[in-house]
Structure formats: structure tokens, C-alpha cells
Amino acid sequence: xxxxxxxxxxxxxxxxxxxxxxxxxxxxxxxxxxxxxxxxxxxxxxxxxxxxxxxxxxxxxxxxxxxxxxxxxxxxxxxxxxxxxxxxxxxxxxxxxxxxxxxxxxxxxxxxxxxxxxxxxxxxxxxxxxxxxxxxxxxxxxxxxxxxxxxxxxxxxxxxxxxxxxxxxxxxxxxxxxxxxxxxxxxxxxxxxxxxxxxxxxxxxxxxxxxxxxxxxxxxxxxxxxxxxxxxxxxxxxxxxxxxxxxxxxxxxxxxxxxxxxxxxxxxxxxxxxxxxxxxxxxxxxxxxxxxxxxxxxxxxxxxxxxxxxxxxxxxxxxxxxxxxxxxxxxxxxxxxxxxxxxxxxxxxxxxxxxxxxxxxxxxxxxxxxxxxxxxxxxxxxxxxxxxxxxxxxxxxxxxxxxxxxxxxxxxxxxxxxxxxxxxxxxxxxxxxxxxxxxxxxxxxxxxxxxxxxxxxxxxxxxxxxxxxxxxxxxxxxxxxxxxxxxxxxxxxxxxxxxxxxxxxxxxxxxxxxxxxxxxxxxxxxxxxx
Length: 530
Prior knowledge:
- The protein is of the alpha+beta class.
- Helices cover 49% and strands 6% of the residues.
- It has a 4-stranded mixed sheet, with helices on one face. Strands 1-4 form a two-stranded antiparallel sheet. A two-stranded antiparallel sheet has the order 7-8.
- Helix 8 (176-187) packs across helix 10 and helix 22 packs across helix 23.
- The longest helix is centred in the last third of the chain and has 41 residues, at 363-403.
- It is extended.
- Mean pLDDT is 76; it is low at 53-59, 64-122, 131-158 and 306-312.
């Protein structure tokens, strides 16, 4: 039996423009340039507005020569509709500037014209014939270029560790079969410089990828050759092997021998700093144990990062905001070096003008204009999204600066106030998710260094005075207490809790342990030194 149901639903959907704005808002300045280039590649109506230096000089000369002409002041960037079409005659340019914006309306002159215009009433060209309506998104909040260029880091042009290892492999005395195994081993090295894959799995890779049947002993023989390459400790399968490979290259004195014994026989005790057990097992005196431990601590546990440039590329932190303090007056600007000023291509406006003047408007021309209209709308939306992104970034950062004014004035971590995302959202009248996207992966350059925006958000800790203290302030005090402790008798979490309570911070032991872990500080037993 068929039934007919009527349901009423209320749903909310994001428009494509809103989705585009959200995606642009959450990316940092360092990635914005790549995103803009991708958009320019897929949308020919979007182009970068970079005036040619030679054209500017010529324009300045023309202005100086025509200073007596009363109409010369009108010939500038704001009043010229199409500055890129210099090959056209001056008369045509003047006619184009004076031409009013046409409106597509049915005419009564004849049936042919009426029919042609009726087919194109859905294309409103008046919104696309004025370049001034589609201005670039660069604003006054954009930072100056000279100051940004001064701090531009140099890129690392040296080769990678992988290239270095392959070069060393070519100089090794290996046959073609062994060199193929060596290349597979080097390709299996991870970012830390270790080979964590099973040798049997590497043998299977060689069989499937290169049709090369090898045994595990053959791979181990080539692995020992690769482990002699620089940097020391490369291609180890675990931490003890990595450290032992480095000790093999040191002078084999008493301290080195004792260090090898510690790593070979008592590595578990060494990792947990159970020094009395090590002394008991290896029959070492206090001085001998201390010297051997010092030798081990000087070794590199991650040799993958010690090559020419490691297995990865050097990355530089690019701030999204620049804050300066001019005698108590804060000046906040956006770092816009990687955001070129965009505009809609004047050629597309010319296409609309040509279409409007055309006597015959066939189907092919209509399809072409429809395509141009879509690309032009997309370019407008993208420029609006960039402009809206910059407005949102500035509003959010200005609110953060106002709430944390004491910190930005002195740079003292103890001046940070408790602040959560909700505080900023209420202050600027936006949703918490919007503030979260702004704070994510963004940073600000101040006179005291570069800080991620998340650094300024912290919880509140109750104090004896009745005021809330920032958790960042408590972490700073906790770090200072641990830094001044006796390394022979480190402070436990219970003792740290009592010391913080004595300073007026109402904090529990589990909170002390949580903050200590967030600071990447180990427990008291692992902080003990000889």
C-alpha cells in the first residue's frame, strides 16, 4: 500500500563562499601564497596586480610633461579603465572611459533585436564592466615590505641526508647486487636515521620491486657497510645499536669500554636511571660510572637530523602578525608579504564590452560569456574571502592585544591573564569556532620574540588573593622551581605542590603532574643526576 508522507525539516547549509572563507581563515600566511597561486592557475580571470616599474617611470615622465594640461590629472590608475591595453589608440581609450555602463534591456527597434536580447536577459553585464568595483584586497593593516624583507631567512641549499648516503654508497666497494640492496636500505631509513623495518620485509620489497632474491644474511652484510657511513649511528635498528655504533668510532679508552658495557648489559637500568643497580652488576666505582654516563650523554640519539640538512627541509616560522610598541602605543599589522594584491583581469571586462557591442549574439558567444561570468564571479568571491579573512584576523588579534596588554608591554610571562576562546569571541561578536580557526597555526612577532597565538590562551588558577592566575604563569614558576632544584635529590610532585601552595596558588598534585608533562619535564627519578 502506497503512502504519501509530508515532513517539515529545518536545516542549515553553508554556501560555497562561506566554505571558501573558512578554509582560507584557518591557513597561516606561509601557506596563503600557495593557495592564491592555485586559485590563479584554475581561474584565468584572477591575476596579480603588479605595476611594471618601467611603465611607472614612463607615466611619471608623461605627467611631468603634461603638467599644464588640466585633464592630465585625470589620467591615473583610478580613472583609467584598462591600463593594460596600451596598443589601442588614445581616442578609443577616451571613448571607452566616457562610455556609460550599458544595461541589457529589450528594445522596440525590431523583432530581431528583441529576440536576441530576450535570450540573454539572464546575463546582467552591468556588474562586470567597471573595474573599480573589483578592487584588490590589500588594506592599511598590511605590514610594510622593507621591515619584513630585512628578516627574510636564507633557504638551505645543501643536499639532503639521503643524497649524502647514496653518494657514499657509490664510493663503497660493492657489486651491482649489493649496491641494489644498499639503495633499498637507505630508502628505508626514517626521519630519525633508523631502519625500523624488518630485514625480511626489506628482502620481500627487493623481490617484488626489483625481482631480486636475497637472503637476510646478505642484507645484514650490506647493512654493516651502510652503518659505517656518516653521520655516525646512521641506519641503526634501535637506540642501543645507534649509540654503540657511535662508540665504536671513539678512542677505545676505559670510559668508552665502560659505556659500551652499560649499553650492552644494563641498558634497561640505564634508561630508568637505576645507577646503584648498574654499579652492582658491572662493579664500577662512582667516578667510573659518572665518566661513562657523560660519554653516553654526548652521543646523538637521532643521527638522521645531523646530516647536511637531515632527511627533511629546514622550515622557518613566518609570523602572521607584527606588533610594535611606540611609547606605549601598539601598532598591529598583518604580514602580507606572501599575499599579493589581486584583481580581476581587465581583459574579461573587455570581453563583456565586445559582447555588448556585437550585432549578432549567437549561441556560441552566449556560452563564452556565461563561462566568463562564472570565472568572474569566482574571482570576486575569492577576493572578498581574502578581504574578510584579513578583517577577521585583525579584529581577533586586536582583542587579544587589548586583553594581554601588560604582557605585550613588558614581555613578562607572569603578566599573562587567564583567557579562553570564549572571551575573545564575546569581545568581537563572533563564534568560538571562528576564533579557534584564527588561533590555530598562527603566530605574532613582538619585540620579545615570536609567539603562537595559542600561547596567550590559558586556564585560570585560583589564588589566595581571590584573583585568578594564568596557568601559563603557574607553569613558568613550576619550571623555575625544577630548574633550581638539586639534581642529586630532585623535587617530587608532592613537594612541588606544597611549594606552589605556599606561594598562594591553590593547585592539586595531579595538576602539577599535568603541567610538568606539558612542559616535557620527566618525573623526579628520571631527573636525578650523579
